[in-house]
Design brief:
This protein is mostly helical and about 230 residues long. Helices cover about 80% and strands about 0% of the residues.
Length: about 230
């Protein structure tokens, strides 16, 4: 219900101290999970505890800025996941099921890419613990992303798809540089590979942030227009 000024009223209200405990209930499972992780670490041998808890640069004894480009890429993946997740939540409230499924599936795909990039799954874990070599693991990941793009094509065409295309192209270029090699200068090859990857991850994050903002804006455009019209009449 709108106020006399045409504004949508703020329905939030202050919670008494007792009710704060009920409001804070979502914190309980999160903390239980965190304590379970710490308990599992605590029973490990001392050197492994240090490796798991200390900063990676401290453990390796390298400069503080070592791996900073990788960290930026990981932050970009995280930004995309968070933006897509809260956008999917908003779409659920607005009963926009198509957009919700698109954003939620995009968040899941990106979350796996995030884990793969952070933990080097395709380069270390999968080749050493499964029959798949590194290139096959990369091919599977690219195939899964490709299937998602085909499945989501109708939703993607309603978004700023050029941003996604450019971001995807940069990521593919990074993979091809790594796979084909043959550069006369290993230094230039590394700069080109990681540079393309960084641009791709930044573009991927930009796409999901912009797409989520566009979907929210379009969903709220009706109520906002009514508020504006009511303000003019008032």
């Amino acid at each position: 219900m709108q106020s006399l000024t045409g504004e949508i009223p703020d329905r939030r209200h202050r919670h008494p101290v007792v009710r704060q405990f009920l409001v804070a209930l979502p914190l309980l499972p999160v903390w239980i999970g965190g304590m379970a992780v710490m308990a599992a670490i605590a029973v490990q041998r001392e050197d492994l505890v240090h490796e798991l808890l200390l900063d990676a640069n401290d453990v390796a004894g390298v400069k503080w800025y070592a791996g900073i480009v990788t960290y930026l890429a990981v932050l970009s993946w995280c930004t995309a996941v968070v933006s897509a997740c809260w956008g999917a939540w908003f779409c659920r409230l607005a009963q926009r099921r198509g957009a919700m499924g698109f954003l939620l599936s995009g968040a899941l795909i990106t979350a796996y890419v995030l884990a793969d990039d952070l933990l080097q799954l395709h380069a270390e874990f999968i080749p050493h613990h499964t029959p798949l070599p590194k290139r096959a693991a990369e091919a599977v990941l690219v195939g899964v992303v490709g299937c998602w793009l085909v499945w989501s094509r109708r939703q993607i065409l309603r978004t700023r798809w050029l941003v996604l295309v450019v971001a995807g192209a940069a990521l593919v270029v990074s993979i091809l540089i790594d796979a084909l090699g043959g550069w006369g200068s290993p230094r230039l090859q590394l700069v080109a590979e990681d540079g393309a990857k960084l641009l791709g991850t930044l573009g991927w994050a930009t796409y999901f942030v912009a797409t989520t903002a566009d979907i929210v804006r379009s969903t709220l455009s009706g109520p906002l227009e009514r508020v504006s019209a009511a303000s003019v009449r008032g």
